[in-house]
Specification:
The complex is a heterodimer of chains A (about 130) and B (about 150). By secondary structure, chain A is mainly alpha-helical. Chain A has helices at about 5-30, 35-65, 75-100, 105-125. Classes of the chains: A mainly alpha (about 130), B mainly alpha (about 150).
């Protein structure tokens, strides 16, 4: 495969690691761990970078690889889950900042959405 | 992770999913640990040190087991064994095994630091050593992710 494909895939996968890193940090927070404020801030930055990276590089991969199209069901499903995870993550972030009730619910729903994206990326139903 | 962008035989999907998930949680736990170790080394405090210890013990260690076990599962399904392993897979082995060793040492250092913190408020050096080991594990993980995705021959 061309180096462009390799780099796209590497950076796409790396971006997805950032999403899960944020999920791990927030899991500790909602479970009551005394996470340093810097860790939470860093997790939010990683989510922003990882979110943009997975989406843009994922679309670039779908365009680059002949076997896939951006409108394939599993890719559309992943994009929808990505959008849901982004909104859920925003609510979780607001909740953590305000120390509000319901933060854990938004966080765990985001974690499920992230897990769903990974399931779609591995199984690729319909591909 | 190695075949993430490809359509592959269905029987490989579950081990691949577990392998990638384990690797992701491992990296996430290491990042949480290093952030906590950094905070603990700067400001001290048993709660943050305990968080780093738990991130390694409850997060990183089980995640490494899942990642490594699933990797072996995939390798056996692919028929890789003995000398019949591609170089990118060798990189994975070379990286994964030291991570386990460093993880255990970092856990020991964190545990000892917690004991010293409770006893006389010390243990800062142990924390810094654990942070360095955790940073090395993160760097090694980056190498592994690159090798698994690009598969250099």
């Amino acid at each position: 495969m061309a180096p462009v494909y390799d780099w796209l895939l590497f950076l796409h996968v790396l971006a997805s690691f950032l999403l899960v890193t944020t999920t791990v940090v927030y899991s500790a927070v909602v479970l009551g761990a005394p996470a340093p404020a810097r860790a939470i801030s860093a997790a939010n930055v990683l989510w922003a970078i990882g979110g943009l990276g997975t989406l843009l590089l994922g679309i670039a991969l779908a365009i680059d690889v002949d076997a896939y199209e951006v409108w394939d069901g599993w890719i559309v499903g992943a994009i929808l889950l990505w959008a849901a995870a982004t909104e859920l993550g925003r609510r979780a972030q607001v909740g953590v900042d305000a120390n509000a009730d319901g933060t854990a619910r938004w966080h765990w729903l985001r974690a499920i959405a992230v897990l769903g994206i990974l399931v779609l990326m591995v199984w690729k139903p319909g591909a | 992770m190695s075949l993430l962008a490809a359509v592959r035989p269905g029987e490989q999907n579950l081990p691949l999913f577990l392998h990638v998930l384990g690797a992701m949680v491992l990296v996430g736990s290491l990042v949480l640990a290093i952030a906590s170790l950094g905070g603990a080394a700067r400001a001290g405090g048993a709660p943050v040190t305990r968080l780093a210890f738990r991130a390694l013990l409850v997060g990183a260690l089980p995640a490494w087991v899942v990642m490594r076990g699933a990797a072996e599962w995939i390798a056996s399904k692919e028929g890789y064994s003995g000398d019949r392993t591609p170089s990118w897979l060798d990189v994975g082995y070379i990286v994964a095994e030291p991570i386990a060793l460093f993880l255990l040492i970092a856990l020991l250092l964190c545990g000892l630091s917690l004991r010293r913190l409770d006893r006389d408020g010390g243990g800062g050096g142990l924390l810094r050593a654990a942070a360095v080991l955790t940073a090395l594990m993160l760097a090694a993980s980056l190498v592994a992710i690159f090798a698994m995705t690009t598969k250099p021959s």
